[in-house]
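Notes from the 1:1 (GR / supervisor)

We went over the backlog. Supervisor wanted to see one worked example end to end before approving the batch request, so GR pasted a single chain during the call. The sequence is below; no edits were made to it. Supervisor asked that the structure be written out right there so they could see what the output format looks like.
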Amino acid sequence: MGRNNERNIKKHNDKLHKAQDKAKQADILRKEKLAEIIKKFNEKNSENS
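Structure output shown during the call:
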């Protein structure tokens, strides 16, 4: 029985893709929050000017 059989490869790839998706989702969420903060900051600065 070899280590690199189809089932083990699939299990590994699924785990890897799940981790990559999680990281990608976190990055998207971080960018959305940053954009929201920048928008609020710009609104506040335009009111003060």
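Supervisor's comment: The longest helix spans residues 6-48.
Batch request approved.
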